[in-house]
Amino acid sequence: MSEEKFSVIDFRNRLERAQSYGEIWDVVKASVEFALNTRRQGMMLFLDTLPIHVGAYHPVGTNNIVLNRQLVQIVEATIKSKRVVNALIYNLLLHEYLHALGQFSELRVRRMAYEVSKKCFGEEHIATEIAKKSPWVLLKGIPLENVDPPQRVIEIIKDFEKTDRYIV
């Protein structure tokens, strides 16, 4: 485990400055290690256009997380706040990472995501608010009738996790 200790300000700054999925992922891993003293390496991220009610998923038994590209694009286009988009992505990745760490209960994972966010960002931070209420709070008031149906074009995010091990 890392001896490096973080404060709420450190986590907030790192998340707000993140410019890529990989940088947000580093915040997810650090926050889980800080809050729960556990970690897992070798995860891969894929973007896919999923039904709008699916934020992301982790296929059990894999090292994959599949993130809903369309959900992120809708929030980017309507809210236009990098801070909020990063908090959304953080929450979706955090939720699936907790599943990848062996937590299968949706209710337990939601509670754990909220506790991790609260410990690392504070109660009033947008990441904690999203964890408490759900990512779909960001879609309130946004018309979703004309959302395109899912396409099956999956994209792998390169340099998502920096590791010195090759994992198949």
What does this structure look like?
The chain is an alpha+beta fold and 168 residues long. The protein has one domain. The chain is 48% helix and 8% strand. It has six helices and four strands. The chain has a four-stranded mixed β-sheet with strand order 2-3-1-4. Strand 2 and strand 3 form a beta hairpin. Helix 2 crosses helix 5, helix 4 crosses helix 5 and helix 5 runs antiparallel to helix 6. The relative contact order is 0.20. The mean pLDDT is 90.
Report low-confidence residues grouped into runs of 5 or more.
Answer: none
Helix percent reads 40-55%
According to DSSP, the number of beta strands is: 4
What number of structural domains do the residues give?
Answer: 1
- Which strand-content bin applies to the residues? 5-15%
Which structural class do you get from the secondary structure elements?
Answer: alpha+beta
The gyration radius over C-alpha positions equals 15 Å
The side-by-side strand order for the widest beta sheet comes to 2-3-1-4
What is the typical, i.e. mean, pLDDT? Answer: 90
Largest sheet: 4 strands, mixed
**Terminal CA distance:** 24 Å
H/E topology pattern: HHEEEHHHHE
User: Number of helical segments?
Assistant: 6
The shape, in one word, is: globular
Summary?
With 168 residues, the chain is of the alpha+beta class. The protein is built from 6 helices and 4 strands, in the order H-H-E-E-E-H-H-H-H-E.
Set down the secondary structure blueprint.
Elements: H1 8-17, H2 21-36, E1 44-48, E2 56-57, E3 64-68, H3 69-79, H4 82-100, H5 106-121, H6 126-133, E4 155-156
Parallel strand pairs: 1-3
Antiparallel strand pairs: 1-4, 2-3
